[in-house]
Design a protein that fits this description.
With about 775 residues, the chain is mostly beta strands. It is about 10% helix and about 40% strand. The longest helix is centred in the middle third of the chain and has 14 residues. Bound molecules: 2-acetamido-2-deoxy-beta-D-glucopyranose (12 copies).
Length: about 775
């Protein structure tokens, strides 16, 4: 015995084992042994048996190695946690069915020796020593193997699968169910393995798996065919499905932002067909485009380039049959679902986010031509305090409860719950988003179970499935959602709206052109506030806005000849034309459900600049361009030799001293009939400066100088022009140059209040009714020489 032990120690390593009296129980939990498919952590050893103790079954000892010819009353016992590589090699060589690495060995030595070598789920039994009788290996008290030899070493692979007390060898089928395509086999490491259709497959009931899976794209999230969830963080177009097994067919998802810049939604879905080289796009409003043309569809499928297209109130469905594959693409404006059915349970050739949503996004993002430039820029909006993530999570978890429990056997709710909470914790609870996620799950479930989408939705307290925005056409900077009145409306996308929101306006600044004022408001900003922008008007109710059907921009305008009720006010330096955009004022309504709109906008005339330019008489005419105010007008001063103002004083005109000269002061551009020009004063100097002296007054405070009887003023303050006449003179003492300076004012006409009151002679008094402010008058100067 000793020499046997020495030999064994050399191979397996049992040196230093302790001696125990038999019978004895050994705790082998540090080297558990799997004996014919059952794992044990205790053994019982007496003089004839090594038995495994079933701790879970009242300590029964039915699995034994029996038949040692009376082991001595004592035995050596040891657990070798580090068996030698030689031992492993020896066992692998002798028992080629045992694979993997040796973990540890339990050894019991006496007259004969028993070694139990742990190879993980596999076990080798090694018996050595002076055996001369039959050794039985028993399971449940029944002999399953025997070792009958006097050979010094006996090795046996006792790895089996045990299922309901029955032992199975490597590769043996334990059970199979054609209805579920499930199959239980004993694998090559003696582990029971359940196989069935892959995750993407469904059993057809005759042990055949087909690829049959749904990819759901809703909001920013993609739940792929494998139920993996990912989110699209930007506003680009992404490949959803392509692959060599669906040749020439490509489904793209186009993502855009809505209320927040940092959350995108699937906005449209595009099918590309390489064969005919066409592109079919389904928009949020349910329009279906074949390249550049829209298709009129109904619930009867229409075949377009081999694609069966149909549309009902729940959305648009496109069905494509590619040899033995069927692809159904559904889109309701908010959720896209791609249902692929094909023989064979797995399809590794598929690509796109639906095949594996965890791939790097850059590998499935479409080239720039498909999306707006800068679409991949990530924004981060400030957190929305109206979002209660706890409450949203509770709502999303409704998928774990009835009525959705009826779906759990067909569709795993987890990825839908993840998609729902990920979105709802980052996006305001608007736009029916909560029901959108429930509906996406219910729709997937209804494809495989007898639960109808309608029933599930009504039990969940959501409205019946409906492509809500079907037919509501919004433009590229808008998206469609439900307004406060429950109607589909076009709201502004966050990036477009952002500059207006930060400026606190509903539109662009007023544009004041040559005598016209216009202001353009953004329809979707007004709509968001519940205003019907078609019903807005100016002070004059007949002046409504011009709605651009494409851009939904509303332009209001008026001009100085049709002021649309503009209120004209004057202050020191400016004359304002102010109008107000108002909401429809229906006098029959005692109450109103809408806030009222009052948006003031104005343009103004600025009083002529106080700039003096001296012109010689040969220039005879002075035109000064006044561009100081957004409304533009010109002031002209011109001299004539006749009262009809037809014979202008030309360079060649001979003007005699004491000859009567008419001077016209005229404005162009003040044609509103509301603003007139008033000549406040005119005087002559012999130098360019209007403040020079000597000075000779022709008009003083709007009236002819009473001391010069030759001066006559005509039409002052009545309209856009006036004139005066005087007899030509010259300064007696100085040089021959004479400069004529005039101060002009604009005046807002109210009851002829712009006309200066001239009583003539010394009784002239300053009229309190004169509206113009002399201090801000402009000078206009004319000069002549002799
Ligand atoms: C066996 O030994 C392990 C570790 O020492 C111990 O945790 C376990 O309880 C023991 N088992 C029995 C049945 O005594
Ligand atoms: C050894 O143990 C087995 C199983 O418990 C038992 O059947 C057998 O009688 C025992 N043998 C001796 C010699 O005690
Ligand atoms: C467990 O075994 C003991 C002794 O063998 C026996 O008395 C007891 O009834 C058994 N208990 C059960 C639950 O089988
Ligand atoms: C299994 O059943 C499906 C549908 O009933 C049938 O199309 C298919 O050919 C069948 N497969 C086999 C291998 O019988
Ligand atoms: C659907 O449209 C097709 C072709 O446009 C037309 O022939 C058919 O009558 C329509 N069906 C219904 C139910 O309106
Ligand atoms: C999906 O793609 C990721 C990244 O390429 C990869 O690590 C993962 O194994 C893929 N998943 C499946 C199921 O193919
Ligand atoms: C969020 O919702 C939960 C559950 O509905 C509620 O208990 C909690 O008070 C809410 N928190 C806030 C800040 O409103
Ligand atoms: C789901 O499947 C399990 C096991 O196949 C079955 O027992 C259960 O009744 C099923 N539940 C529903 C709601 O169909
Ligand atoms: C908006 O106003 C226009 C013009 O007053 C009217 O025709 C239209 O019905 C209104 N729309 C809504 C939704 O109230
Ligand atoms: C006149 O209008 C100008 C420009 O809007 C403004 O700055 C100024 O305060 C106004 N003056 C008076 C007296 O209202
Ligand atoms: C618009 O103009 C009216 C009339 O001058 C004025 O009463 C009102 O305060 C103005 N509103 C705004 C918002 O400036
Ligand atoms: C004023 O009118 C002239 C002539 O119509 C135009 O060229 C100029 O640009 C205008 N200036 C402003 C400020 O509108």
């Amino acid at each position: 015995m000793l020499c046997t032990l020495l030999y064994l120690s050399a191979l397996i390593g049992l040196a230093g084992a302790q001696i125990f009296s038999l019978p004895a129980v050994f705790n082998i939990s540090s080297c558990p042994i799997t004996f014919y498919g059952q794992k044990y952590e205790q053994i019982y050893v007496n003089s004839t048996n090594v038995c495994f103790i079933d701790l879970f079954n009242n300590q029964t000892r039915q699995d034994c190695i029996v038949g040692f010819p009376l082991l001595a009353g004592k035995a050596l016992f040891q657990i070798n946690p580090f068996p030698s590589k030689d031992a492993e090699n020896y066992i692998h060589m002798t028992l080629p069915t045992i694979t993997g690495n040796i973990k540890c060995i339990v050894g019991v030595g006496s007259l004969s020796d028993v070694y139990l070598a742990n190879f993980g789920t596999q076990t080798a039994v090694i018996i050595g020593g002076s055996i001369s009788s039959v050794i039985s290996l028993m399971v449940n008290g029944i002999t399953v193997d025997t070792l009958n030899s006097n050979t010094f070493w006996q090795l046996l692979d006792v790895s089996r699968c045990r299922h309901s007390g029955v032992l199975y060898k490597y590769g043996e089928v334990v059970s199979s169910d054609p209805d579920t395509c499930s199959c239980v086999t004993c694998d090559d490491t003696a582990v029971l393995r359940v196989t069935g259709c892959p995750r993407t497959g469904r059993c057809q009931g005759n042990n055949t798996c087909v690829f049959d899976s749904i990819c759901t794209v809703t909001g920013p999230t993609v739940i792929d065919f494998l139920s993996q969830v990912n989110s699209v963080p930007d506003r680009c177009a992404y490949s959803l499905l392509s692959g060599s097994s669906v040749p020439g067919f490509h489904v793209l998802g186009n993502f855009r932002e809505r209320r927040r810049k940092d959350v995108s939604f699937v906005d449209s879905v595009t099918l590309q067909l390489d064969g005919p080289g066409v592109q079919i796009q389904v928009d949020q409003d349910g329009r279906v485009w074949l390249d550049k043309n829209t298709l009129t569809l109904n619930s009867t499928a229409q075949v377009v380039h081999g694609v069966e297209l149909s549309k009902d109130q729940t959305g648009v469905t496109a069905k494509v049959v590619l040899s033995n594959k069927v692809v159904l693409v559904f889109f309701d404006g908010n959720t896209a679902q791609i249902h692929l059915k094909a023989p064979g349970g797995k399809d590794p050739s598929l690509q796109g986010l639906c095949a594996n949503s965890s791939v790097p996004l850059s590998s499935v993002r479409l080239p720039a031509a498909y999306s707006a430039s800068g679409c991949e820029v990530h924004y981060s909006d400030s957190a929305d305090s109206s979002i209660n993530c706890t409450m949203m999570t509770e709502r999303c978890n409704l998928l774990n409860e009835a009525p959705f429990t009826a779906c759990h056997n067909y569709t795993n709710p987890e990825p839908y719950i993840t998609a729902c909470t990920d979105t709802m914790c980052n996006y305001p609870p608007a736009d029916g988003l909560h029901c959108q996620f429930l509906e996406a799950y219910a729709r997937a479930c209804s494809l495989y179970s007898s639960n109808t989408l309608e029933d599930l939705m009504s039990e969940a307290g959501c409205s019946p499935p409906k492509a809500f925005c079907q037919g509501k056409m919004c433009n590229a900077h808008e998206f469609c959602a439900e307004n406060t009145g429950g109607e589909p409306s076009c709201f502004c996308r966050a990036i477009f709206a952002s500059p207006y929101i930060s400026a606190g306006t509903f539109g662009d600044p007023t544009i004041c052109m040559q005598n016209s004022a216009s202001v353009t408001l953004v329809g979707c900003l007004l709509e968001e506030k519940g205003f019907n922008y078609s019903a807005l008007h100016l002070n004059d109710q007949t002046c409504t806005g011009q709605v651009d059907e494409q851009t939904h921009m509303v332009t209001f305008s008026f001009n100085s000849s049709n002021t649309c009720g503009a209120v004209v006010t004057i202050n020191n330096s400016q004359i304002f034309y102010m109008n107000t955009i108002k909401s429809q004022n229906s006098s029959s309504d005692v109450i109103t459900h809408q806030d009222q709109v009052y948006i003031n906008f104005s343009c103004f005339y600025t009083q002529p600049d106080v700039k003096t330019v001296a012109f010689r008489i040969m220039d005879h005419s002075v035109i000064q361009q006044i561009t100081s105010g957004p409304w533009n007008y010109t002031v002209t001063m011109k001299a004539y030799t006749d009262a009809g103002l037809t014979q202008a004083v030309e360079l060649s005109t001979e003007v005699q001293l004491n000859q009567k000269i008419w001077v016209e002061l005229k404005t162009d551009g003040l044609d509103g009939g509301l603003v007139t020009v008033v000549t406040d004063s005119c005087w002559a100097t012999n130098q360019a400066s209007p403040s020079g002296s000597p000075r000779y007054d022709l008009i003083i405070k709007g009236c002819a100088n009473p001391t010069d009887r030759t001066v006559q003023v005509k039409g002052n303050g009545l309209g856009p022009s006036n004139s005066f006449s005087f007899n030509m003179f010259r300064f007696s003492s100085n040089s021959g140059d004479v400069y004529l300076h005039c101060k002009l004012n604009l005046c807002v006409k109210q009851n002829n209040s712009c006309t200066p009151i001239c009583n003539g002679g010394a009784r002239r008094r300053r009229s309190a009714r004169v509206q113009y402010e002399a201090d801000s008058s402009a000078f206009i100067t004319m000069a002549w020489t002799h």
